[in-house]
């Protein structure tokens, strides 16, 4: 708050200027606001004009001119002089702001005292004085000001005090917290009580919980403080929900019901989550975030008709329209209405959703047998959403590579590199496309370019190491690359799989096996299954190998990786 105060006061200067402009003309005219004169001349002119200028309005104009020329101290003194002659609290506020930034402690004290005399019952003047007195260690005065602030506005938002406390000198923090706690006890301001509890928990875990529980026994429970106290039980969602249920006075509050719904969902009770969110949105049609969450839950349970009805309500909301079109597109696709799905995905116009929407459109282009449309839609999006240009290039290339069009992906990514020189993601994607086209030399060149810029890039080290192990005889070089990658990411299933694979290729299948076991416990996909099963088969554990292959095949029936592995082993 102390930092924002200065900026807010600076922003109010034009208002002060307009309010006072008509009061009195400057006594000396030659020093115009747009004059360009040497530094000594400016200083001399300001001093001369200040001596002869009698009105607060004239002094304010001079002060703003001084600020424009970066004569900060002169501007402060002009504003201080203007505030003594003016009864306008805005002038006093501006003077106090400048005094705080560049003046002495005495300057600040005089300016704030004068501001308080002119505006004794405003939040801004009381906050300024509270900040000043707290920093000076005058805690009794600071406490009176804080009490006045929360008395003026029973809904006063005191959350900024947490940041203010953290920036105070260590020896002043304890006294500040005592004052804030005392005012919270007397006023019953929930925002202040929450802030006190948060600070106490920062100092010593759980002490804030105890304090807020004691505070709640003296004051009425509101939904915001009940939710705050419930969140103190996280990550235990059951305890958090149980706490909310102990306060019947807020149990039907819509914010409470919405939070209970989310926690119920996280606990796996999606039926209860849907029931609670249905009650929330039926009671308040403006709760768009809850409407969207309920629609997504209905989609998960294949209740597409209910979800579609909810999402269509969001089309009237500027903030949620793009989300609604995106999920309406998903529903249309899942219910075999490709033309409607395309229409809906094309209406998504939020940058953070545009990449996923165009990916969906590209898939629909394949399904509807118009693959050329995919490129047109990605190209259009790159023109309309420049901030997502790079991500759209990468997304299109990944789509093409995964659909056997690596040659087109290479063209697109080469074009992208002209705009995003040596971009890591683009180079990485092009390396994968080159590998798919069996151009190992160019794939390696792109990965090496990444590693020149960042030799610690674990994913690039792994990609290069795996490619060399799988597609060349440079196994020892591959092993060193993968070892380095594994040092950076020891729990990465992809790198563990690579390590197992290169060890197996080197003839160390027994040493390879633990790496596959660890990777398999994290991710059970078809590629890891193919490698893991092959090592088991090589070690004479064919029954276990078949079990692993079956699980891997179920994860991706479209993949030919496992079938190719089985055929090679059986026919070898």
Secondary-structure-based class equals mainly alpha
- Percentage of residues assigned to helices: over 70%
* Poorly predicted parts: 1-11, 13-40
Kindly, what is the distance between the CA atoms of the first and last residues, rounded to a whole number of angstroms? 74 Å
Q: What average pLDDT do the residues reach? A: 89
Major sheet summary line: none
Strand and helix map with partners:
Elements: H1 2-11, H2 13-20, H3 39-52, H4 56-68, H5 72-85, H6 89-102, H7 105-118, H8 123-135, H9 139-152, H10 160-167, H11 170-187, H12 190-203, H13 207-218, H14 223-231, H15 237-245, H16 254-266, H17 270-283, H18 288-300, H19 304-313, H20 321-334, H21 338-346, H22 351-367, H23 372-384, H24 389-402, H25 406-419, H26 424-436, H27 440-453, H28 458-471, H29 475-488, H30 493-505, H31 509-522, H32 526-538, H33 542-555, H34 561-571
Helix pairs in contact: 1-6, 2-4, 4-5, 5-6, 6-7, 7-8, 8-9, 9-11, 10-12, 11-12, 12-13, 14-15, 15-16, 16-17, 17-18, 18-19, 19-20, 20-21, 20-22, 21-22, 22-23, 22-24, 23-24, 24-25, 24-26, 25-26, 26-27, 27-28, 28-29, 28-30, 29-30, 30-31, 30-32, 31-32, 32-33, 32-34
């Amino acid at each position: 708050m102390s930092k924002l105060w200065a900026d807010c006061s600076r922003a109010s200067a034009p208002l002060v200027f307009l309010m006072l402009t008509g009061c009195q003309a400057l006594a000396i005219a030659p020093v115009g606001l747009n004059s360009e004169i040497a530094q000594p001349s400016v200083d001399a002119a300001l001093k001369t004009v200040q001596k002869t200028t009698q009105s607060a309005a004239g002094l304010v104009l001079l002060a703003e001119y001084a600020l424009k020329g970066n004569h900060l101290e002169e501007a402060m003194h002009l504003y201080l002089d203007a505030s003594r002659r003016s009864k306008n609290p805005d002038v006093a506020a501006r003077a106090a702001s400048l005094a705080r930034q560049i003046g002495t402690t005495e300057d600040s004290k005089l300016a704030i005292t004068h501001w308080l005399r002119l505006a004794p019952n405003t939040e801004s003047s009381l906050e300024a004085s509270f900040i000043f007195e707290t920093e000076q260690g005058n805690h009794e005065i600071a406490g009176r000001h804080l009490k006045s602030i929360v008395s003026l506005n029973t809904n006063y938002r005191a959350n900024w005090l947490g940041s203010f406390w953290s920036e105070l000198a260590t020896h002043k923090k304890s006294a500040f917290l005592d004052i804030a706690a005392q005012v919270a006890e007397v006023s019953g301001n929930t925002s202040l009580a929450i802030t006190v509890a948060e600070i106490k928990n920062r100092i010593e875990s759980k002490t804030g919980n105890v304090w807020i529980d004691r505070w709640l026994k003296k004051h009425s429970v509101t939904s915001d403080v009940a939710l705050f106290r419930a969140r103190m039980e996280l990550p235990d969602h059951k305890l958090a929900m149980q706490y909310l249920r102990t306060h019947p006075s807020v149990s039907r509050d819509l914010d409470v019901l919405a939070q209970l719904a989310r926690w119920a969902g996280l606990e796996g009770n999606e039926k209860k989550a849907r029931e609670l969110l249905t009650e929330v949105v039926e009671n308040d049609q403006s709760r768009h975030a809850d409407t969207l969450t309920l629609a997504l839950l209905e989609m998960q349970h294949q209740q597409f008709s209910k979800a579609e009805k909810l999402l269509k309500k969001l089309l009237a909301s500027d903030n949620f329209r793009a989300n609604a079109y995106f999920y309406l597109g998903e529903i249309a696709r899942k219910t075999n209405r490709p033309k409607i799905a395309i229409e809906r995905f094309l209406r998504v116009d939020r940058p953070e959703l545009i990449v996923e929407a165009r990916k969906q459109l590209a898939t629909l282009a394949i399904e509807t047998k118009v693959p050329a449309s995919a490129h047109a839609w990605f190209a259009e999006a790159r023109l309309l959403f420049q901030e997502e240009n790079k991500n759209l290039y990468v997304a299109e290339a990944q789509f093409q590579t995964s659909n056997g069009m690596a040659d087109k992906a290479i063209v697109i990514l080469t074009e992208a590199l002209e705009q995003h020189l040596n971009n890591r993601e683009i180079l990485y994607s092009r390396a994968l496309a080159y590998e798919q086209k069996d151009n190992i030399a160019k794939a390696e060149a792109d990965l090496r370019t990444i590693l020149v810029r960042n030799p610690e890039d674990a994913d690039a080290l792994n990609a290069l190491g795996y490619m060399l192990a799988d597609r060349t005889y440079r196994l020892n070089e591959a092993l060193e690359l993968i070892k380095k990658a594994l040092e950076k990411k020891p729990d990465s299933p992809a790198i563990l799989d690579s390590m197992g694979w290169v060890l197996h290729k080197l003839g160390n299948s027994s040493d390879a096996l633990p790496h596959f076991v660890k990777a398999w416990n994290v991710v059970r996909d078809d590629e890891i299954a193919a490698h893991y099963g092959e090592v088991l088969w090589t070690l004479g554990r064919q029954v276990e190998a078949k079990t692993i292959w079956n699980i891997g095949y179920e994860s991706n029936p479209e993949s030919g990786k496992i079938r190719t592995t089985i055929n090679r082993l059986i026919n070898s």
